[in-house]
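Box 3.1 A note on notation
Throughout this textbook, protein chains are presented in two layers. The first layer is the amino acid sequence; the second is a token string describing backbone geometry. Keep the layers aligned when reading.
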Amino acid sequence: MHPFESHIRNVPDFPKPGVIFKDITPLLTERFSEVIEAMSQGIDWSQVDHVVGIESRGFILGAAMAQLKGKGFIPMRKKGKLPPPIIAESYALEYGTDTLEMIVNTKAAKIVLVDDVLATGGTLKAALKLCERNHLHVVSMSLLINLTFLNKFKEEGLPVVSVLNY
């Protein structure tokens, strides 16, 4: 068992029945700097211009990684939270759709895409598309938790670095 696991709280039936939510709040409270260091491993930072964090926990993790590595931070937000001009990518959820947005970027850059948990992969796939459409080449994705039994990112050969795998 990874030392971080004892600080993750499993919350049954949240946000809906049958789901076990991985609450990382205790982990961030007790071992935040270690988490950021662990999530920064396995990435060639000499090839990275910026870190993109997906709202909301990806903001916390990504901004800290950017600070640690001396890189700029770019927020990726839910619909309606950023001023124009924006670029958007919608994606399917189990019940309906959602949209991610970024401020329009005109200068090509290499980025690390950061989020807390990779489950089915819908959000991350939309985020990848949005970055590529916005002239941001994803050189790596860094995740705290990868629920590998729910997604095929490893099989698809995408550059995923994750600290905890279930």
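Helices lie at 25-39, 57-69, 122-133. The beta strands are 9-12, 20-23, 50-54, 72-78, 86-93, 96-103, 109-118, 136-146, 160-165.
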